Amino acid sequence: MAERTAWKQGLVVGMIGAVTVAVWFFILDLVQGRPFFTPAALGSTVFLGVRDLDSVEATVGIIFGYSVIHLTAFILLGTLVVVIARRARKTPPLILGALLVFVTFQALFMGVLAIAGEHLLGALAWWGVAVGNLLAAVTMGYYVWEKDPALKEALAQEPFDRTH
Questions:
Q1: Residue 18 neighbours by CB under 8 Å, 6+ apart
Q2: Are 6 and 79 in contact (CB under 8 A)?
Q3: Residue 164 belongs to a domain
Q4: Contact call for residues 36 and 58 (beta carbons, < 8 A)
Q5: Closest CA to 7 of 110, 77, 60, 91
Q6: pLDDT at 72
Q7: Cβ atoms within 10 Å, residue 125
Q8: How many CA atoms, within 13 angstroms, populate the side-chain half-sphere of residue 27?
Q9: Is 140 buried (19+), middle (13-18) or exposed (0-12) by CB count in 10 A?
Q10: Nearest residue to 37 via CA among 20, 19, 54, 13
Q11: Count of domains observed in the chain
């Protein structure tokens, strides 16, 4: 039963993160006068192997296809966040580990983007990606924090004292 609720909560947490990032990039794209450019550029790279920005295809299929990948990745990440939060009830230092995992994933994503999609680096500024991921982490973390009173209680005690 606990596994099922972890998946359900992970689904919600992941959707919160995915929507946060999507809205962030939609706003950035609008400000630059090119709505849906980010998912179109990423989708064109993934599905069509596009290597230059002039070849980006902003079709419904490309944008939708990339959105499915984006949402799936965030649902998996959301489930991981929920599992870590639940385990941190008994072992509060896991929160520090989760923070380190977030920083590592951030660096990994930026590295993969630099290697596999170097043509996107100018269009998707590193700071935009970093801010989007930070916003997602904050909104996802806030939701888990608010929905998990046992986690709050565990961290309110001496969070790095393993005797609790």
A1: 70, 71, 73, 74, 75, 136
A2: yes
A3: no
A4: yes
A5: 77
A6: 95
A7: 12
A8: 9
A9: buried
A10: 54
A11: 1
| Interval 82-100: pLDDT, tens | 998 888 888 888 888 788 8
Q: 7-39, pLDDT tens digit by residue?
A: 899 999 999 999 999 999 999 999 999 999 999
What pLDDT, on a 0 to 100 scale, did the predictor assign at position 70?
95
User: Is 163 contained in some domain?
Assistant: no
Q: Which residues contact 11 (CB under 8 A, 6 or more apart)?
A: 75, 78, 79
Tokens of 75: 């649902």
| Both structure tokens of 117 | 């999609």
Q: Note whether residue 86 is domain-resident.
A: yes
> Comparing 19 with 112, which gets the higher pLDDT?
19
- The sign of the dihedral angle between the CA atoms of 96, 97, 102, 107 is positive
User: Is 162 within the bounds of a domain?
Assistant: no
Cβ–Cβ < 8 Å for 28, 99: no
Decide: 7 and 79 in contact? Cβ < 8 Å.
yes
Residue (of 24, 14, 159) closest to 83 by Cα position: 14
Contact predicate 74/136, CB 8 Å = yes
Tokens of 139: 């909104």
Residue 83 lies in domain: 2-156
